[in-house]
Design a protein that fits this description.
Elements lengths: L1 H15 L15 E4 L22 E4 L10 E4 L12 E4 L2 E2 L11 E7 L2 H4 L10 E6 L9 E13 L8 H15 L16 H5 L3 E14 L2 E13 L6 E15 L4 E15 L3 H13 L20 E2 L2 E2 L1 H7 E19 L4 E20 L9 E23 L4 E20 L2 E21 L3 E14 L6 E14 H4 L8 E15 L15 E14 L4 E22 L2 E26 L3 E20 L4 E2 L6 E2 L8 E5 L1 E5 L2 E5 L5 E2 L7 E5 L4 E11 L2 E11 L2 E4 H6 L28 E3 L2 E14 L8 E15 L14 E2 L10 E2 L2 E2 L7 E11 L1
Parallel strand pairs: 4-7, 36-42
Antiparallel strand pairs: 1-6, 2-3, 4-5, 6-7, 8-9, 8-43, 9-10, 10-11, 11-12, 12-15, 13-14, 15-16, 16-17, 17-18, 18-19, 19-20, 20-21, 21-22, 22-23, 23-24, 24-25, 25-26, 26-34, 27-28, 28-29, 29-33, 30-31, 31-32, 34-35, 35-38, 36-37, 38-39, 39-43, 40-41
Helix pairs in contact: 5-6
Length: about 850
Amino acid sequence: MHKVFFLLILFISTTAFTQNLSDTAFQSFDGYLIVDSAMNQGNIADPLFLIKGRAAGLTVTKGDGHPMNHESVLIRGMGSRGWDNRPLYVIDGIPGADPYGLFPGHIRSMKIHRNVASTSKYGIYGGNGVIEINTIGNFIKDTFQVSYHSMISFDQPSERLDLLTASEFRREAQRFANIMEMPVEEFFDDLGASTDWQDEVFRQVVTHQQNVAVSQSINNTRYRLAFNFRDQPGLLIQSGKRKIGLNSYVNQSLFNDKLNLSIGYTLADLKYKGISERDSETVLLQAYTRIPTNPVNMPADTFSFVYPYHFYGHYDPVFLINSYHNTQKRKSQRINVALDYKLSELLTFSINSGLQKIEKDEEFFMENAVIMNTRISSFRERTDKLYFLNSQLNFEIPWSDHSIFTSNIFYSYQNSRFNKYINTYLSNLHNQRNNALSGEVNYFHKRGLKIRWISRYDNIMLHDVDEYRKHYWSHSVSLGWNLKKLVTNSLFERFSRLEFQYLYGKAFSQPLPNQTVRPLHDNFHPTSEHVFSFKTGLLKNRLTLDVNFYKRTTSNKHYLVIYTSSGPGFSPYDYIVINKGAEADLRWLVFRKEQFSWNTGFHYQLNNNRIKTLNSDYSFVYSRYGDQIFDEGQSLYTFNMSEYAYSEGIDLYYYDNEGGITTNPYDARKTRASVFPEYQVGWQNELHYHNFNLSFSMRYVHGNYIYNADRLILSELHFPDNNALSGEFYPNLTHSYHSDFFLEDASYLRIDNIVLGYTLNLDHWNMKGLVNVYFGVNNLVTLTNFSGLNPEIDYERPVNGWEAPIFYNNDMTGISAASGYPPLRSFFMGVKITI
């Protein structure tokens, strides 16, 4: 009965007030818009690389160059540890849609919703921020148009470890023999090879991509059909992926454009062969540690007491790769149908429905298995389905000559399912239904005052079990005042806009589906946020500045796995995380003439991540490599390392709290450092001169720390067990897991993207069309004092497997293990033809 009453009240308020204000009055309350021309260009494999470094408050990172890993995204920091911190993706109005099923060429614009006041309309899905993606099908030109885009890229590892060569290894072996006063042959059998194992397992590859699209508008009908193909070999030998895509869109207008009906379909079919993301660490550890005097694929009769692939405790990485057979397939399909009907000049009704299906399977087997001396095989299969229906009623009534009310009412139904099989056995099953109702009321006065109120009710049920039915309320209020419209003083004439805003919102974040094994009411973490914002424009908006100060609070309730005499169980603990910071986005059209223009943009973000309260009997997280503290006043990922002083023999010495020396790491003075950066800066430029265009994008990230386990493991030279880093041997420190000796400042400056192009207008040949030829490079250079492979931290896929007894999923972000896949550097060129 209460649902019917709520519907009645909200509908009455809707018809009594209004919505669908003429476009721009409330635009400043919405997200930060990035159109395709302002995105990164060139060789783009991941759609999210398009906006890397292009907005304040947006952190886009990728920890390695594995073809199956993608860019991870955080908006205004991380609110939970061991939980899903990813934003919600909304593609053409469908929330929860898969962005990785898109080809970058399909995308027309992305809108970054950073404020919870804006994302509260998505309720239980909006707590981590929202990225709305509009595909190019909504921007079809009237004329018949054919476009062809071909790109080729030359890819290579951008970094490599500086390991001992064969001659250096032999020299160190002789030096060790002299120290021990024994013949070198007694502990080291030189097989005479000079093998660079990084050269053996890594390679330079050529990636190519082809895109063809046809579009036209005929009377009241618009359509677009695009086909895409990408072949991307992996840097690791015997690996690579191919991706085929299809994107179609049809729109029909009827009844004098009062009715608009559109249908879209997207297909992305991906196939990968080679070492998987998780197994690449095992293979690369062997490549980095195997001694360089061993030959590749050592003959079996060389040593009868070992297998040919195994020598001195380490395996031949080339043999491992050749014995390893892994195939991953991922097929993503999405179809959506949208209808908009203009009932009157003031009333509009719309429906948007969609279905998304993602099928994944992985087949693996290994010949001559190195552990069990038998063949290992496995098969994994997973299917995700998302059903979505959204209906919306927009209504608008002028309140007076000076003001207007607008209002809308939404109903949304969403059903997400997945099932997972391992070796034909069902290992996981998930079904979640959600019925949501929301309302929005806006008020606008011509003197610059605007107010927005949003409220959403979510009724969610898990596994079709009524016991797991829960209710959630999300809401927000936004206040804005454009002083330019209020004050007519000449002082303000140079401003095209001068607006102050206050925004408050509350929404929720949910875990990944396979994390919903605990009671449902603990699975949705509330996030509330206060924002003070200042927006201004000068020189007829040639210079715009958007500044935000925010405080975001996320309440978490987790469960600790405990073991008792009666078996395993769960013990709850809760904590509150505060993300507080400032953002600034500046866009400046520096120069604009007929033959030359220069656009530049700066994006600055400062975020302080802290645990405010913690209710738990546990406060410390122990890991094998790098101690981290989990306690009030610290960030979610804070190293807590004993401060190293010096070493003598096998003894390590630390500074204690009084400035003295101790050998007990638990009595030592602690060095605390966060994996999160203190601040980040992005800078982009677009220059046009006659028919030439140049764009480049770079980022500076300051103050994040990484525990460099590369150095920890590879700084100790054991004869004849393993190779080591050149010129850096610390035989007494490699077991100093509690010491800050290998804790490094990973601040860095990286040039992400440079593209130089030339556009030829075919009008000179009595043809309509354009030809654009371009050259460029991704990840040109990284300037950093960090000595590992990559200073960029992937916050979505932390290093797993360390001993971390407090947390359910044992995550230890901020550790650079000595098994990393190096980042990718790409030199590319391409041509775009549009006729």
